[in-house]
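@channel anyone free to eyeball this complex?
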Amino acid sequence: MKTKLILTLVLIVSIALFAFTNNDDSQGIPISTTPQKQFIVVLDAGHGGTDPGNNGNGFLEKDIVLDVTLQVGKLLEAQPGFKVIYTRKTDDFIKLKERGPVANEADADIFVSIHCDAHHTQAYGVGTFVMGLDKSGKNLETAKKENEVIFLEENYEESYAGFDPNSPESLIGLTIIQEEYLDQSIMLAGLIQNNIVNNLKRKNRNVKQAPFWVLHSSYMPSVLVELGFLTNNTEGKYINSEKGRKEMASQITNGIVAYKKNLELATNDFQNPEITDDKIDEALKVSEKKIYKDIDFRVQIAALGNKLETKPENFKGLKGVNREQEGSLYKYYYGNTSDYNEIKILQVQAQEKGYSTCFVVAYKEGKKINLSKVLNTEEK
Ligand SMILES: [Zn+2]
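replying in thread with the prediction:
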């Protein structure tokens, strides 16, 4: 859905800009004039140290996932434009609640957590999860198991604010931050899942939503891959093998690389010629208005735990950024207009500045409302 929006955007702004770029200097501008922004991937090897994860068939989840994670990192770092950050590179115990913040502090583009599943039956197959609660509650079992590591931490009652890994109800509140990145998380999860399933002929347990604590606090598309079941005799042996780990790592990498390419494709038309602030101003001047009365559209560029001054230096040069507090979170918005075409052009500008996952939100009388509902009503 987001891709469709971006593509619509590409079209609108391309048309608006066309009138201003058909002069001589629009030709032959090499793509390399746009400096390549690094795509930051945070890789999270599940468990570690005193937390072994599951040990189905005697295989150690913490060792397998660390090996696969390090291999993914190595493969990504060999690609141009990638920067990799790890939550752990050694056999250390890292608290669940410390993993998401690593990604937030790095201002990462994506967060990928890697695990192996376990079951008391011979269940098998690969599944990739995004944060959320599915209505059936069927996917809770895996999430509960992965969340249980919290019990290993001292004072977990205090540090996890009453969160009980065994109670689905207490998980509901955790899904809020990630909701905003759901489309992109699903896209990333789908690309990883399809690469593994199709290229390695693994059983497809699909992309699913479940409330994993480790996914809930990151402000970027975030997924958790369950490579398969160590408890299954055949699958466990495969995942534990050198071949299995290597193949899994290479397909996770393929999924991540494909995700980055998809994002670039969606915005590629803007990179040559480069979209300067002047061109955005020109596009704004010529764009047709599409006014929704009583609605304020804004581009949400960031949601952070810390309070930043809204000066341009803090926001990659964007002027007039607004900050609003929502719960424990500060949200930062660019633009404020009832003209939907204008906000889409401003979104392109924010993307050009590096906020590749920014999105449009709608407000009515100071309250955030559902954007798709607004757009489905007649413009006024
Ligand atoms: Zn695990």
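from a first look: The pocket of zinc ion is lined by residues 46-47, 53, 61, 115, 146 (CB under 6 Å).
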